[in-house]
Amino acid sequence: MRAINIPRDGLPVTTARDMARDDSISGRFTLKTEVVVIGSGAGGSMVAWELARAGRQVLVVEAGPYHPSSAFTEHLGDTMTEIYREQAAQLNATADVLFPEGACVGGSTVIGACVMQQPPDSVLRRWSGELGLKNLAPDVIKPLFEEVGREQYVHLNDAHEINTTAHKVIQGCERMGFSWKPVSRNVRQCALTGHCLAGCPSDRKMSALVTHLPWAVGHGARVMADTEVTRVLIRNGRAYGVEAVVRDPRTRQKVADLRIDAEVVVAAGGAIQTPLLLQRSEIPDVSGQLGKNLAVQPFVQVLARFREELHGFRGALVGVEIDEFIETDGYMFFSALAEPEQLMIQGNQGAGPDHINFMKSYKHLAGLNAFAVDEGRGEVKWKGSHTDGRKVISWNPSRSEFEKLKHGAALASRVFFAAGAEEIYLPSFQRLSAPSVFDLDARLDEITYGVRGMYSLRINSFSSHGTCRMGVDRYQAVTNARGEVYDVKGLFVADASLLPEPMASAPHWTVQTLAKQVAQGIHARGQELFLKG
Amino acid sequence: MNNNNLPTAGLEPLTRRGFLRAATLTGMALTAGCASLGGRRTPNGEAVYAHLSEEEARVLTRLTEILLPTEQFGLPSSTGEVPTVANINDMAGDMAPQTRDLMAMVLWIFERRPMASFRFSRFTRLDDEEALRYVRAMQSGTFFERGLMTTLHTAVCVNYWRDSRTWPGLDYHGPVTGIWGVRRLGNAPMPTA
Ligand SMILES: Cc1cc2nc3c(=O)[nH]c(=O)nc-3n(C[C@H](O)[C@H](O)[C@H](O)COP(=O)(O)OP(=O)(O)OC[C@H]3O[C@@H](n4cnc5c(N)ncnc54)[C@H](O)[C@@H]3O)c2cc1C
Fold first, then answer.
1. Cβ atoms within 10 Å, residue A167
2. Contacts of B23 in chain A (CB under 8 A)
3. Using the beta-carbon criterion (under 8 Å), do B140 and A430 form an inter-chain contact?
4. Which of A249, A433, A506, B12 stands the most exposed, by the fewest C-beta atoms within 10 Å?
5. Chain A contact present for B76, CB below 8 A
């Protein structure tokens, strides 16, 4: 019997600093393990736990730094600087859509907004029926969803977790006759600080930092931070390890080159980084789909000013959702209002006194994020050599995606006007606001598609997926239903890249459920995949 | 707003490619570290900007005054108390060389762009009212003018409002976990099978 020691607080992580101090580590070194997991976010942490508890030797390598919860300052500016990829400046090729991601031990789960949703059964039935992915049939996958839900302490927000911003959304929905419900979140005893996007210093958010990673470590998994995998090693159609670079997170100086020999390689770098890694690794891409089918769940934020003071930034960040349109139109709406910096990012364009007056009205503001399901036509591409190249994220709204987002903004505005808003700030590159519902359409008409929808609506994406989609046809998909890359035995994907189609539900829960399924599949094939069976 | 009254007509278009490259700075505007809020000063109190040229610092300072006339509103000064430009300077120091070059280009264009419409004046030589009109004209201009303006607007405003000294003026509470004495829970217990 093995002793299971889960750290009570924090994680034992090997960092670049540790490696720089270790005399036994030279500029180049090699490690050996049964399973190497690339990335420690939603997918990677789940795989690490599942396989470690099944008795496998697991090494998790994470490109980002280790930032324990105790080090969080609840300051969005600090957090962006330290643990958001490219300091929150990851953009599409035309530099007008933001793709924030966590780049730290725990990945995006550390900075997530805690919304947990399962795809509706109708979606799962489509995936299992029309797409032939029997492993996603509701009766097969639902028990796994439930298991993940328990692991994540998912619960429906209680009354005290619904703040004033959310109450305005409820009021508006009641008047408009729209269906709404409290959001389900993965939080244990939420302290209602409103700082989710800056990391949770009291360990209440069930990020991978306090759940699956410490559990994996308890079962013997090791975690290395500041270590970016640059290439998956493949010989004769079989993955046999990875190459990585260890860098000091502050100076960006290289500390060491590393090679990890492994019997199973699991790529869990997220839907933007995983396809880039596999492209750099020149994996056979029979389907030509690697990096394609990028779905982004684009969203825009509508801000509303009310006469009364709301202090809408207090309390649980996300309180309620409008679920009226998810199944019919693929729209999701979540109430939320974060920190002052966020207002800049989301789109206030005022100058001089207008800008100051807008900021001064912060305590009177409420926010509603309007998400639309997109068509999954984006692409992630690595250009140039594997060492010196660069990534290109291609996603601009098509005309119909643009119209959908605009319609989403219109619906969100109407909900707020119905709740008594005095002014609505529209999420555009122009400075646009509407003082009443009667002016709304005219103002919205000023937001035009223009050239490929560029610099038009201010669009964000937190939820990229689909770039290594799973499928039963090797000519249409990058991985099979078990998450194994076609034609590369022993190379698995276990992150948001796997999602077979654009979906209109917050992805975290689905990503973890798929990762659990992939890990259990690897375990079940132990004889075939591992030397010691 | 009636765009016809604004001086967009004479603004010569940027090349699209140049603009798109310049717009990557919108994101970079978020990158200044909080550790660097202090800025650096000479013994006689003058700000020294290691990563901004004199002209760049002048343009950014003027833009900060125009976008953030804070003192009239009882907020900490955007050019004195809160070192907005020093923060942008630190951000510039962290930028990849290529991105830094682009910031130089954006500022160069922004400074000279009003010449056609404002009696051959540069941005820094416009009076307050004209400078504000120019900024607004850019905000409602062509798609690349909007993008360029958004880039600079974001750089300036993020680097002001991220300073916690600005928050009391907004009645924003800032960090609360410490103040409220919220206990850390540590790692979640592992689920039992
Ligand atoms: C600000 C924000 C808020 C969000 N809020 C929600 C929400 O409320 N609800 C929800 O459902 N979803 C939310 N999401 C999305 C959700 O977090 C992601 O869908 C989910 O975490 C994806 O999991 P993943 O495993 O694919 O990637 P991630 O969790 O992002 O993890 C990937 C990890 O891999 C690392 N990595 C990448 N490449 C390499 C490499 N080459 N070598 C080593 N390591 C590498 C990265 O640094 C990162 O840490 C949010 C995302 C963001 C950014």
1. 18
2. 94-96, 455
3. yes
4. B12
5. no
Strands A222-224 and A13-14: parallel
Rounded-to-10 torsion of CA A53, A57, A63, A66: 60
CA distances in angstroms from A195 to A215, A333, B157, listed in the order given: 25, 19, 20
Residues A205 and A212: their CA atoms lie apart, in Å, by 13
Q: Using the beta-carbon criterion (under 8 Å), do A454 and B143 form an inter-chain contact?
A: yes
Calculate how close chain B gets to A466, using CA atoms only, in Å: 24
* Residue B169 CB burial class (10 angstroms; 0-12, 13-18, ≥19): middle
Interface of B with A in 119-178 (CB under 8 A): 132, 135-136, 139-140, 143-144, 146-147, 149-150, 153-154, 157-158, 161-162, 164, 166-167, 169-177
CB atoms within 10 A of CB B5: 9
Residues with CB under 6 A from ligand 1: A 38-44, 61-64, 100-104, 107-109, 111-115, 197, 228-229, 268-271, 273, 277, 462-463, 495-496, 506-508, 511
Closest CA to B88 of B113, B109, B62, B69: B62
- Dump the DSSP string for A335-370: E----HHHHHHHT----THHHHHHHHTGGGEEEEEE
Q: pLDDT class for B119, splitting at 50, 70, 90?
A: low
A98 to chain B nearest CA, in Å? 8
A-B CB pairs within 8 A amount to 203
Residue of B75, B143, B158 with shortest CB distance to A341: B158
- How confident is the model over A386-407, as a mean pLDDT? 93
* Predicted confidence (pLDDT) at residue B170 exceeds the cutoff of 50: yes
Torsion angle (degrees, nearest 10) of CA A85, A88, A90, A92? 150
Q: String of b and e for A384-418 (b: at least 16 CB within 10 Å)?
A: eeeeeeebebebbbeeebbebbbbbbbbbbbbbbb
B147 and A95: CB-CB below 8 Å? yes
pLDDT tens digit string along A78-118? 888 889 998 787 889 888 898 999 999 999 999 999 999 99
Which pLDDT value is given to residue B1? 29
DSSP-derived 3-state class of residue B155: helix
Option in B23, B68, B183 nearest A202 (CB): B183
Q: What is the complex's ipTM, to 2 decimals? A: 0.93
Of the pLDDT bands very low, low, confident and very high (cuts 50, 70, 90), residue A346 is low
Rounded to a whole number, what is the distance in Å from the CA of A351 to chain B's nearest CA? 5
pTM: 0.93
| pLDDT of B101 strictly over 90 | no
Residues of A in contact with B73 (CB under 8 A): 353, 356-357, 360
Whether the CB-CB separation of A378 and A294 falls below 8 Å is answered with yes
Helix (H, G, I), strand (E, B) or coil at A432: coil
**CB-CB neighbours of B174 under 10 Å:** 16
Q: C-alpha A59: how far from its chain's center? A: 22
**pLDDT digits over B23-81, tens only?**
444 444 444 433 333 445 555 455 668 999 999 999 999 999 999 999 999 999 999 99
